[in-house]
Amino acid sequence: MACALRRPDAQPWLGQPTPCLSARPLSRTKDRRVIKPIRWSDNDRYFGPFTYSYEPRSREFALMLSSGDGDDYPGCRLRVRVGRHTLIVALPPIIKPWAVQKRYLDSHENERFYTERHEREYGFSTLDNSLFLRFGPQTHDSETTKSKCWFYPWSDHKCIRHSLYDLDGEHFATLPEWGFRSKHGWKVKDAIEAICPTAKFDFKDFDGELITATCKIEEREWRRGRGIFRLLFIGRNMVRRSLDLRFSSEVGRRKGSWKGGTIGHSIEMQAGETAEAAFRRYCAQQKLTFVGLTAYRAGPT
Description:
Elements: E1 44-47, E2 50-54, E3 60-66, E4 76-83, E5 85-91, E6 98-105, E7 111-118, E8 120-127, E9 130-137, E10 147-151, E11 157-165, E12 171-174, H1 185-194, E13 198-204, E14 210-224, E15 238-251, E16 262-268, H2 275-286, E17 289-297
Antiparallel strand pairs: 1-2, 2-5, 3-4, 3-8, 4-5, 6-7, 8-9, 9-10, 11-12, 11-14, 13-14, 13-17, 14-15, 15-16
C-alpha cells in the first residue's frame, strides 16, 4: 500500500490513517545462517562448528546423529565418542525434532493446546556394560520412544538369594523369591525382616547430636553371566555380606537442608567381621563418635 511523505513533527490528518515516514522500501538482506558449536560439558573446546570434550570420569563409545529438541538442547549434531574423548559436529537442520500437539483444559475449563518437543536420535552408544540403540524420537515414554538396551551377556548379574543373619553371623532366614504381582510378597518379606535379630548402637554426629542406628546383617548372591557365558563363571557366583543401617534421625552435614542427610543405607562387611566391629569401622571412616550398644534383639524364641 502506498503512503505519503511527512515530517516527523506533523500532526496526523483527521480521519486518515497515519502515513509512514518514508516511502523508500526497506532493504532486505539474505540471512546467513551461522552454525554455532554445540555445548556438551564444562571441558569443551570449540573450533568453528566442532566441539571437543575430554571427560575423565567415564569411558564410552558412541556414534549418534541427533536433531536437538529445539529448546534446551537446540541444534542438529553428530556425536562421536571414543573412550574419554568426544567430538561433536554441528550440522544444518537435516532432521527435525519430534513434535506433537497436546490438549489440556485451563482453569476456566477452556480447551487449550501446547506443543511437546523431543529430540530424534539415530545411532548407538555403550555405557555401564550395556549397548543402547536409538532409532527415532526419545520421548521418555515407553509407548512412543524408539530405543533398545541390551546388557552384555558376559557381565550380566542376577540376584538369586537374599538372606538374613543373626548378630553372631549365623544364618537366620532366606527371603522367598516373589514377583511384583505377588499378592502377599511384600507382607511375607516384611514379616520375616521384622523378627530378624538386630542391634542398636548410639553414636554422635559431627554436631554432637546423639543418634541411634538399628543394624542387621544381610547377604546377597548374584549369578554371573547369561546363556553360554554362564560357563565362564561356574562355581564363581558373587556373594556380598552387608550391614543394613537405619538411623533415628538425619545424619551428615547436609541434614536440615533441602538436600537432607541420610536416614539409612548399608555398608559392606569384611570377612569374619561382627556387626559392632563393622559399625565401629563405619563411624571411624565417617568421622562419627561411637558411643556403644544400647539394645539387642535376638529374634524369636
